[in-house]
Amino acid sequence: MSLRHALLGLLADGPASGYDLTRAxxxxxxxxxxxxxxxxxxxxxxxxxxxxxxxxxxxxxxxxKTYALTDDGHTELRRWMLHWPEQxxxxxxxxxxxxxxxxxxxxxxxxxxxxxAAHCLAEIENLRPVMEADDAEHRPGDPLPFGRLAGxxxxxxxxxxxxxxxxxxxxxxxAEPAGTS
Amino acid sequence: MSLRHALLGLLADGPASGYDLTRAxxxxxxxxxxxxxxxxxxxxxxxxxxxxxxxxxxxxxxxxKTYALTDDGHTELRRWMLHWPEQxxxxxxxxxxxxxxxxxxxxxxxxxxxxxAAHCLAEIENLRPVMEADDAEHRPGDPLPFGRLAGxxxxxxxxxxxxxxxxxxxxxxxAEPAGTS
DNA sequence: CCTCGACCTGTCCGCGTAGACATGTCAAGA
DNA sequence: TCTTGACATGTCTACGCGGACAGGTCGAGG
Lengths: 181, 181
Description:
Two copies of one chain form a homodimer.
Chain A: H1 2-11, E1 16-17, H2 18-26, H3 28-32, H4 38-50, E2 54-59, E3 65-69, H5 71-82, E4 90-92, H6 93-99, H7 106-137, H8 148-175
Antiparallel strand pairs in A: 1-3, 2-3
Helix pairs in contact in A: 2-4, 7-8
Chain A binds a DNA duplex (30 and 30 nucleotides) through helix 2 and helix 4.
């Protein structure tokens, strides 16, 4: 149950409501790491409160309840972060498509890989300015902005996939020339 | 329902039994892309047969049934491969941990990142010889071995994460020196 | 004053999934 | 001949999860 640990990790940054957490999952964490809708988040927060890992910190207008980590919650988060299982849970549609590229006809595969490469380039050009702006504001000694490490991960991820797509195109071309002939 | 498409993709490589497919998921596809146990695979194959995407190709000893793709199955696979949704399903515990590194105390974060870097290095050194052996046997014009693209993906993936971990360590060190002073 | 849109919390249902349970066959080697 | 281990197929149950359903509050602007 990694949703619980995702929530613990997000709450470690400060108290938040179910609504806040739901919006957090709409951002990069939901795009690269783990998805969750509010319909899973509210019940899970309730269970975590029952288990003593979080407490209701304060109640605001519109029935807003912010949750805060307890010591138990902190301990559990740390335990989970430092204890890596042999085989982690992975379920990634994009990677699955990459594994199955070779099931396509060569022309289809080529078109697909070209699409992937172009998409990665576009994402890289979106991401890089944001990261560089972050860095420009950053002075040595400041804490890193939350998400800076994640952003860097995303950037390097796209660069790796881009390189892979180009390499694959080259190999495919070598194995079975089609555009030429 | 990506399990269905994973199965279609694997069957595109040739007929296989539920047992064969289960073992395929124990390999790299289950490690990087999508996991599935036999308890999901057998019912799904039955449903796919009902939907006309696969047929029982031949029956062997011990009740073995090999399934083969139909034209419908091929069409559906191709449709899924070429049609990329805006937001793909992702659920990756490892990436989640990376997103939450900053929730740890600096010393813990540093230890964790060092562990990640070391782990990546080890995997790279496992993978690279296998890929190079593949390449040595490969002559231009031969079809690529199934899994060669996937292996290259894994290799580049580990290299990217390795680079990210080193970069993060450096940034963390700059932001909050601990080993020194 | 009123309306609209963002805020905010929840439940319900059907399907996907993991792990345990159940059953039986065949081949190789002791 | 017997035992062991790989081969092989299935079901069952409890839980995770996404999308729809449901209801209510507050602030800003017309």
